[in-house]
Amino acid sequence: MSLVLDVMLALAVIGVAGWTLLVRGNFPAVIGFVAYGLLLALVWVRLGAVDVALTEAALGAGATGVLLLFAVVRLRGGKAEIDAATPSPPQRVAAAILCGVVGLGLAVAMLNLPDPAPSLAAEATRHLPLLGVGNPITGVLMAYRGLDTLLEAVVLVFAVLAIWSMAPDRRWGAIPGPLFPVQSSGPLSLLARVLPPIGIVVGIHIAWVGADAPGGKFQGGTILAAMGILAWVAGLWRLPPVASRGLRWAVVAGPLVFIGVGLLGFVIADGFLSYPPGFAKPLILLIEAAMTLSVAAAIVLMVAGPPERPA
Amino acid sequence: MIFGVTGAALVALGLYGLVTQPALLRKILAFNLLGGGVFLLFGVVARRGAVADPVPQALVITGLVVAFAATALALVLVLRLFQITGAATIAEDKTPP
Amino acid sequence: MEATPGGFLLVLMLVVPVTGLLLGFALGGRLAERMALWLLPPGLAMAAVLVAGLLHAKAPVVAFVGGWAPPLGLALRADGLAAAMLLTTALIIAAIALFARADYTTAPGAPEARAPLAFWCFLLALWAALNAAFLGGDLFNLFVALEMLTFGALALACLDGKATQFKAELRYLLFALIGSVLYLLGTVLLYGAYGTLDILLLAEAARADAPTIVAASLMTVGLLGKMALFPLHLWLPAAHAGAPPAASALLSGLVVKASYVLLLRLWFWVMPAALLLAVAPILALLGAAAILFGSLVALRQARLKLLVAYSTVAQIGYLFLMFPLVAGSAAEVAERAWTGGALQAISHAFAKAAMFLAAGVIARALGHDRIAELQGAARIAPLSVLAFGLAGLSLMGIPPSGGFSAKWLLLQAALDSGQWWWALVIVAGGLLTGGYVFRVLSAAMQGRSAPIFPLAPVDAAQERVALGLAVISVLLGLLPLGAFGLVLIGR
Amino acid sequence: MNLFLTLFSGAAITAGVAFFIAGTVALLRFPDPLSRLHALTKADSLGLGLIVLGLLPWAGGWLAALKLILVWLLVLLAGATATQMIAEHIRRSEPPP
Questions:
Q1: A163: nearest CA partner in chain C
Q2: DSSP notation for A13-24
Q3: For residues C32 and C16, what is the distance between their CA atoms, to the nearest angstrom?
């Protein structure tokens, strides 16, 4: 039964992916991509990775989908040139063969992985009591491979600043993104008033339970960002200008707190990013709280894009 | 293992789209399809043992965030190029600049 | 391997520039510039102390972040190669910062502007990313470092906000993203096969089975795309030549080297020797093709910056000649080839940074960079032309430059190991390099009958920075051979 | 009691799935966007409602049951809003003949 389900799910994912590539319009392609992301989230549930399923649904399908939709709307035109740039049939055949070889090689390699599978599962779980957290993924992200997570948080800051720096000079200091008229009535206005209070509670809840259950800063932060984007699109919330220092501190707060706690480890524990016994959980929660804020801010700003409107 | 083969197929599909699609937006879309396939392989590797291995799952979360940032950055570049020149591809210019 | 004392230094080399970037971004305006300049001395000092410590202890420095040992935790390791690259990075970053003060300064009290803020933040960002890429001991951690590097490099290259830049950088981004994906596919297969991504643990365990071979091919192709080895070089010339001078110098001099060091780690540490023996000649063949192709195309360029960029395509080729010379050779020959390869990476970094900075000064002074119309450049910007010439000597491999030592070591290793055909490539590449360098110099040295005035005033400090880098690239050849023993530590 | 619950859940979920299938068929077969939307939302809200109703007895606690109902309400809200907006967009872009 579950095998049949898996095969159907796998075929659906591949089918939607193929459709997304082949369909002519950009808009349906993006919708197809969001469906693809949601199906992948289901696959992740089937693989027993609920944390990843949440991240895939929120970030991979949701936030990326919004990003792509904005781009579709703003990129209307350029048709003739696209036809000119289409690769010739022989080129396409060559590309297809090359990609087929890569896919085949991967499949062969995956099927030939050694048995029993090497795994760090036991090792990762063994140290969890020391950290005071119950979710092994949080253990990996915040302790064992904390440096990965720190660098990743810094990558988000890079991305925000890089996106801002693409703006024309005269727009520096201005408000990011297009201007949306205030929706005083209608369905969007209703949604933007009703949903955020619920969404903010859900987002904080998901970030909070991450220590012991599926969830965490990235998933919770994405939900918070979605609420912000909703209020922004409905014209109910004005984004601060890029010159705003408060906005910038919100973006860097997460990584800065992360580094601060890390450096504290030199003094009160065995070095950078090591947590003293008994204090691990509060310190992890402190980092997660700051990171949730920064992740949410960074995602809103990445969706909004470079500064465009005078403050 | 079904999903292992699925992941490999998605990688092949995404790679093909990334190489052959002329429009930049569609290339970026294909890159995200491709990313989904790669991450799926991590999930399959994590699931091979008796107990799910949290390490590859955590790597996927990191990877998803990085892929999102890359997508955002690429789209802004595409948008700015479009705003300045009206071009939606990076085909070679027929006329020298 | 155990963590060693002094490991905190490795952590600080990551954390200090990152903190500077975060604070500079948040505080904004003039403080971002201040932050970058303040951090130069401590950054340089850390790199110097690390090199000195390594030379003294003759052993690598290792840190386990958070106290978690691999395979669960992440290790940072500084062997001789990493330490040498870190010091190179610190010196070139410092030089570029001094060069860029004239272009990206914010006067006291002036409102914050886009380009300066982005430049100073991303200078620190690239520094952190390069340090992370040279120190990383875990293949996934290195993936994140490479992504940081790509983002930072991209932002710096687009700093002028021109459409041509956006186009060139988009092409670069697409190559880099495909490269990252292929690399990531390799890491997942390696994790599936060995349950770790730590380089040293993988080195102990690696077998020549199907998953490992597929992983190695994917990761190698991905990294070659990122470092633009022929025939994956298509993105590089436009991306490097179109960027502002300070960014070009960073991209061509340092950023491609991060992928190179990672490739070395992959093949000389992780992969079993039998695989390496099979692949080394292929890599060297591509390298040889890059040397000949890149040099020939550089010879035919009409624009100075594009010439310098194609020269990078060629010089990257030299880095790959070392593979068959190290693999399977007697210990002494292998050591010579290894030192030659590392020295080529370092001396090219200095020489190419100097060349791009000098080309930037010349292009700005003349208002164009058409080689055929460079007459009088030597009179307007004499130090820059001198810097270009000295850097050119190093690229050609004229004694006593660093480039000479590097190429001489590779040449000797080629002859000693009976692979004389690589020696021919080295010599031919040197001659072609001489051709394009002299083409530029002879045009620049020619006087012009009419008096010539610079379009923009030439900043003497900028010229001196370019010259300083060129002089270092030459002086590297005068370093006693003992100093080269550095890159052999922990091999 | 248990048998009754099983039967009840089975019936509710089957009915919910039937609504989903009907909605999907309608989405594919109906001629114009407005009637497609109409069919889709009816099927979705009712279908999901029935499935949630069927799952409630098995939720294992009040909190989980509340969460299930909250999921349904949120989908209702989102679905209704999206439909309204799409419909409004259609009305503005294609005035009826």
A1: C155
A2: HHHHHHHHHH-S
A3: 14
C-chain residues within 8 Å CB-CB of B31? 177, 181
- Any C CB within 8 A of A165 CB: yes
What is the torsional sign of CA C423, C426, C431, C434? negative
Query: Residue C444 belongs to what domain range?
Result: 280-491
The complex scores an ipTM of 0.94
How many domains does the structure of chain C reveal? 3
Please check whether residue C151 lies inside any domain of the structure: no
Q: Which chains have 3+ CB pairs within 8 A of D?
A: A
Q: How sure is the predictor about B94, in pLDDT bands with cuts at 50, 70 and 90?
A: very low
> What DSSP assignment string belongs to A135-188?
-HHHHIIIIITHHHHHHHHHHHHHHHHHHHHTS-GGGTTSEES-------SSHH
A residues 22-61 closer than 8 Å to B (CB): 26, 29-30, 33, 36-37, 40, 43-44, 46-49, 51-52, 55-56, 59-60
Multiple choice CATH, B2-85, 3.90.75, 1.10.287, 1.10.10, 3.90.25: 1.10.287
Q: What is the pLDDT of residues C67-116, one digit of tens each?
A: 899 999 999 999 999 999 999 999 999 999 999 998 898 888 888 889 99
Distance in angstroms between the alpha carbons of the first and the last residue of chain A? 59
Q: Is residue C346 part of a domain?
A: yes
Q: What rounded mean pLDDT belongs to chain C?
A: 92
Asked if A148 lies within 8 A of B62 by C-beta distance, the reply is yes
Across the interface, whether the CB atoms of A112 and C141 are under 8 A apart is answered no
The reply to whether C148 falls in a domain is: no
Question: Both tokens of residue A177?
Answer: 């993104």
Chain A residues near residue C27 by CB distance under 8 angstroms: 245
Compute φ and ψ for C76, nearest 5 degrees. -110, 130
DSSP state of C71: T
